[in-house]
From TrEMBL, chains A, B:
Family matches, as NCBIfam families: FMN_nitrolo
Domain Luciferase-like residue range list: 23-386
Pfam families xref list: Bac_luciferase
Organism lineage: Bacteria, Pseudomonadati, Pseudomonadota, Alphaproteobacteria, Acetobacterales
Keyword tags: Flavoprotein, FMN, Monooxygenase, Oxidoreductase
Species: Humitalea rosea
Protein name as catalogued: FMN-dependent oxidoreductase (Nitrilotriacetate monooxygenase family)
Length: 441, 441
């Protein structure tokens, strides 16, 4: 067996997993998403399997209005724990796995974000990552003194400046700033502590940060944007991108589009890992995998299912569930809706089919099959140059993760695609990412 | 021995302890304030000793400018971990001790604060507390798009509204809102989830909070204000007040002033615990205690010492160190400076004496003596009705905490003043505080 490039694996673990009816599974603890013990179980299982990182997506509020009526109270994706608080607790009971939390640049201040992620990086011994998002719902805006979400251009302009400020704050202390010389009484060398003095369009931030340089130099940056500005932020700064592509051609296009942008920032193509999301149903046989899938889907009531299409396509409850998907009436269709529509057209899906697929993986690509079947698909993407790894989004937790470990991991390792031991102690080392240089050094 | 009311004990553990030169002690790990392992050691020791809570003060930025020049680089109180992130990690490696973090109402948004503290309350099994402050330095303001700190009236008006919004968000979910009925597919009862729809002068916050009702109903509220509005916020909402009083008469006045305010909020005098801060130097003998004190003070260089007076009294470096303390030139003297001046006049202190006392305990009252001597003083305050307990601020950590456990705890217990076992599993139970009623129930 020749040595081949190792894939990177993230585990997305928001709520009880990505399936809309996860909480109704007979073996699921429906209250798990508010329990530390649930997440300890998940994170420790992922660490034992040598995942690069666990990841928590986030929205700052309860996103789903009750549309269509009756859907909201069927959703367990309403009560949860704040992700940074949760990951910090998990850092004390894990030792190698990366800890990636989402935080919005639209409804936060850069000083807080720089400080919290730097602290998590210290506390975890170099395992922190920040998934940079700009938020997307009016429900979030209404928790932060606004009526509606900030519009795209302003939001991303703010995001780009926000990320630069945070990176600047993370450079406040040079690596060797703390001399801590008890004899002379000098704790640090003032020439190696730097105020940022940032004055920009959206922020004025003096600094310096009150957290010293972190084990990873700075936390790992993650992005998940598909728009122009989102991809530029990723190309300029991110080490990881979580992608959503449902077919190889789209995936390949996205991958190359993103990688082509790296050169102008002086970065190599391998400095940014592209990790499409996958929601996997698996078992000993294909039919067992499909039974698990069907059983879960049967637990999705129609209102709940339709609510998954609502945000992107509006209220479809007046249309026959088993009829074709209508054209969206909203002229400003988002990229996610476009993906959904393309999929519906290509595969001739009914409304029920479409919400079933969406509700099965929260919009993530769904794979159903045995270990070798699923790994064939993963391998095809890697070999085609459409993925450097995958962000695994199990339908139910911890069950779907256990299935992944049982059925997928051995096959990945048999093919030499995934590590059997961590390469290093930090997330940066495990990702094979370079240490960032401090701008002042 | 008759049963007497039990005192409450907090352990304040910011940085490496409250003494300005803590990091220079021969046995101190000077890098400890950025290490999780240091805080685990401290929190687990405090828990073994049955402290009610550990507490982290906070400032959002490096407060000390280099005034007088040369002081800043002598201070270890410059690099630290963000307190909520740190307490969350500690929640996973402790099981009974309360976890109280400071957060500013001036430079935060109520939704974030409500969400993070509620999450910590779940994660810790009901041990979270929030120390409500309004911040105080221009250095903090400059990290949040401002030139100067927000002025007093606006800051406290915002604080009062902020606290009301946070309490409202914590009521979003009624206790029994989550039915989690797998059979019917109903996860929660929508009649028991409440949007706040707050519209006020400083905030518009729709809610509901995305965190379900917490083990303590809501986290414990702590306040440390001495001004009119600060004390009203405490009387209206807080279960604990950290006080700074240097003599029994002032302490008694403050205590009664605060307790007298409770009735108009329909609260009993025992629903708010007043806990003055104490920095203690102790040992087998009084002279051993004093040697520890003198040895630490000898490690404070004059610039560093003067920097402790700078914020309140301006630059005193032109005056003779061993001469009298001059009248402050700033006409708007803060309460802390007033306390310092009164102390200097009463005890005929030189500038060096004053900065020594201040640097020894960061302005907290300092006691030096054997266990029985220190406990005499604590008992006198409790018996006089000036304290319900104490916020212990060791000069050095973990050393000063170990001394407290060795020399003070046995004497407190001998006199029946402090518990030998926790009464309950939540901070609220251990404080003997009532469960709050949900406004919607
Ligand atoms: C895998 C993945 C995870 C995402 N996670 C979040 C999230 O947790 N919170 C959020 O507000 N947005 C999240 N997003 C949305 C993206 O940040 C982004 O807004 C969206 O992909 C649209 O991209 P664009 O705004 O660049 O067009 C996620 C997107 C993807 C693809
Ligand atoms: C024991 C104690 C701890 C405090 N901790 C903090 C703190 O961590 N952060 C902060 O900004 N202010 C802190 N303060 C300042 C108070 O919040 C308050 O601003 C100060 O006591 C002045 O009170 P006033 O503003 O009501 O006059 C603390 C005060 C005391 C007495």
């Amino acid at each position: 067996m020749t040595t081949r490039p190792q894939i990177k694996l993230g585990l997305s673990m928001r709520y009880l997993g990505y399936h809309a009816a996860a909480w109704r599974h007979p073996d699921a603890d429906p209250a798990g998403a508010s329990k530390l013990s649930h997440f300890i179980r998940v994170a420790q299982t992922a660490e034992a399997a040598k995942f690069d990182m666990v990841f928590l997506a986030d929205g700052i509020g309860i996103r789903a209005r009750d549309e269509p009526p009756g859907a909201l109270s069927q959703s367990a994706q309403t009560a949860e724990l704040e992700p940074l608080t949760l990951l910090s607790a998990l850092s004390a009971v894990t030792s190698r796995i990366g800890l990636v939390s989402t935080a919005s640049t639209t409804y936060n201040e850069p000083f807080h974000i720089a400080r919290k992620f730097a602290s998590l990086d210290h506390i975890s011994g170099g395992r922190a990552g920040w998934n940079i998002v700009t938020s997307w719902s009016d429900a979030e805006a209404r928790n932060f003194n606004r009526e509606e979400h900030v519009e795209y251009a302003t939001r991303y302009e703010r995001a780009a400046e926000f990320v630069e400020v945070v990176k600047g704050l993370w450079d406040s202390w040079e690596e060797d700033a703390l001399c801590m010389d008890k004899a002379s009484g000098r704790f640090f060398d003032p020439a190696k502590l730097h105020a940022l003095n940032h004055v920009g369009k959206h922020f004025r931030v003096q600094g310096p940060l009150s957290v010293k340089r972190t084990p990873q130099g700075r936390p790992i940056l993650v992005q998940a944007g598909v728009s122009e500005v989102g991809m530029e932020i990723a190309a300029a700064s991110a080490e990881v991108v979580y992608a959503v592509s449902h077919d190889l051609e789209t995936g390949l296009g996205y991958y190359n589009n993103l990688k082509d942008r790296l050169e102008k920032y002086g970065r190599g193509r391998d400095e940014l890992k592209v990790m499409p999301g996958l929601t996997i149903f698996t078992g000993h046989t294909e039919s067992e995998a499909r039974e698990k899938y069907d059983m879960m889907n049967a637990l999705v009531p129609p209102q709940l299912g339709l609510s998954y299409l609502y945000g992107q396509m509006g209220d479809l409850s007046a249309y026959p569930l088993d009829g074709p998907v209508p054209e969206p009436t909203n002229p400003k269709v988002r990229s996610i809706a476009r993906n959904l529509l393309t999929m519906a057209r290509n595969d001739n899906l009914s409304i029920r089919d479409l919400y079933t697929i969406t509700a099965a993986g929260f919009g993530t690509r769904v794979l159903i099959g045995t270990g070798p079947q699923v790994v064939d698909e993963m391998e095809a993407w890697v070999d085609a140059g459409a993925a450097d790894g995958f962000n695994i989004c199990p339908p139910i937790l911890p069950l779907g993760l256990d299935d992944f470990v049982t059925f997928i991991m051995p096959e990945l390792r048999r093919r030499g695609m995934f590590r059997t031991e961590y390469e290093g102690t930090t997330l940066r080392e495990n990702l094979g990412a370079k240490m960032p240089k401090n701008r002042y050094s």
